[in-house]
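User: Is it possible to get a 3D structure for a protein together with its bound compound? The compound here is flavin-adenine dinucleotide. I've pasted both below.
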Amino acid sequence: KAAAAGYIRANDLVHAISLLEQSRGEARILAGGQSLIASLNLRLAGETALIDINGVAELSGIELVGDRLRIGALTRHRELATSDLVARHVPAIAQAAPLIAHAAIRNRGTIGGSLAYADPAAELPACMLALDAEIVLRGPAGERRVRAGDFFIDLFTTDLAEDEMIVAVEVPVVVAGERQTTMELARRSGDYALAGIVLVDRPSGVRAAFFGVGPTPVLATAAMAAIDGGASADEAAELLADDLQPLDDVHAPAAVRLHLARVLLRRALAATRS
Ligand code: FAD
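Assistant: Yes, that's possible. Here is the predicted structure of the complex:
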């Protein structure tokens, strides 16, 4: 079990940020708790206080704002999987959400928690990268927006400062002629993926973000350029050796992950271009 830690429930966003600022890096935000509580129980995280944001109403809700879908940080994975707005405007996220863990975890886990945690095998960070979403952060100095490509820095490391929190993400909505797909390969349903892809196939060009094949979600820039230049799926898949640096671990060797990424690119292109 976890070591003893303080607990305080934030009443609203201003309260949450002022608690974060006062804690000077000693406290951690508690959202769905599906990663944080496990880390505390394993004593991987040694926070002295938890700031519970589950009662902060400003962090909830999914709304269409112009040509973007704004998704509040406290939106649960289950809401992403069942929202009509998400299904209509960002189908890659609607397809990704049911692939996350199991129903009990999807009922509690949040999009803000998933992005802040930045597990390289997680689906939602890769969605943000493929969709070129903006992560909306708030700290004592006000609001800051970071494009997903600049947000995920390294293994479990993001651009979030210790006194900032994620309040929302803003995702460009699908345009005419655009197709999106999210696919992954895992040993068992509900496991983290051994490899996964989010493919956004726009008339203006393709964006392919992979997860589970490096320390962060990765844009396959060489393969993307080849596809836009008319290369076949097989030719583009070969170029993934230049784009991806999968890690060897107990779940799969790097070569297997690269092979799975190639399989996924071919399948995803077949799906968006069928
Ligand atoms: P928490 O656990 O509450 O917090 C995680 C971290 O994010 C903490 O450091 C916390 O301080 C920080 N944080 C939370 N919210 C904010 C915010 N708004 N601003 C700043 N920092 C914040 N995830 C997947 O993507 N794919 C999977 O296949 C998958 N499988 C899982 C299997 C199991 C058995 C378990 C237990 C978890 C799995 N997860 C998986 C993780 C799950 O998706 C979590 O919900 C998610 O990683 C974290 O979200 P959370 O809301 O629970 O965050």
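The CA atoms of residues 55 and 255 lie 45 Å apart. The longest strand covers residues 165-172.
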